[in-house]
Write a structure and sequence with these properties.
Blueprint (H helix, E strand, L loop, with lengths): L1 H12 L7 H13 L2 H17 L1 E2 L6 E2 L5 H4 L4 E8 L2 H11 L3 E5 L17 H9 L5 E4 L5 H16 L3 E4 L15 H9 L2 E2 L3
Parallel strand pairs: 3-4, 3-5, 5-6
Antiparallel strand pairs: 1-2, 6-7
Helix pairs in contact: 1-2, 5-8
């Protein structure tokens, strides 16, 4: 019975990105041998987060509220909308760049081979925001991958059809990289050096 639970815990920990079988087993043994209180707290917080954290009704960022703190803030510049692939990208840009606009989180990128199209990214919600007349510049901060570029191009066309300026963050960001792993200085320069998309 106990061995079954150890294996189940190890396999559950392997669901985390970058955690292989050896790392998962080391984590499981650490919690069981040295930090049972930490393991219990981890389990409680994890369960609570899975139940209570959802997506912001406006930007799709992760939040416990109906509308996240960024969207609710009166200090944010509502005419600037930055499109990113993940909530981690929001945090990386917001902490590193001093960007004061709002965000729209795609939770992925267009990938027809994986069955991810505009509907899965809820681009109809983004289109509604563009149609509201509030957004004057759309900053495309998708990852510099083939899929990220294709997604940026698709969204830029949506903006262009509505007469909204679309810019792309400068590529001080390494090609094939993820924004959440880029240092703050590079992200700051990438945002400052953004350019009109398609120029």
């Amino acid at each position: 019975m106990a061995q079954g639970l150890i294996e189940a815990l190890t396999q559950a920990l392997q669901r985390l990105p970058g955690v292989g079988p050896k790392s998962a087993r080391r984590m499981a043994f650490h919690l069981l041998v040295r930090d049972r209180d930490g393991g219990r707290r981890l389990g409680q917080v994890l369960l609570e987060a899975m139940e209570r954290v959802g997506r912001c009704r406006q930007c799709r960022n992760l939040t416990e509220q109906d509308i996240c703190a960024l969207c609710a803030s009166p200090r944010r510049e509502r005419s600037l909308l930055c499109v990113v692939e993940s909530p981690a990208d929001v945090q990386a840009i917001d902490q590193a760049s001093g960007f004061q606009g709002l965000y729209y989180v795609l939770h992925g990128h267009l990938s027809p081979l994986d069955g991810i199209g505009p509907e899965e990214l809820e681009l109809d919600r983004l289109t509604a925001r563009l149609d509201s007349g509030e957004v004057h510049e759309l900053i495309l901060a998708t990852n510099p991958t083939v899929e990220g570029e294709a997604t940026a191009h698709y969204i830029a066309e949506l903006a262009r059809a509505r007469g909204i300026r679309s810019t792309r963050i400068a590529h001080g960001v390494p090609l094939g990289g993820d924004l959440e792993f880029v240092d703050g200085g590079t992200l700051r320069q990438a945002l400052l050096g953004r350019r009109d998309y398609g120029a």
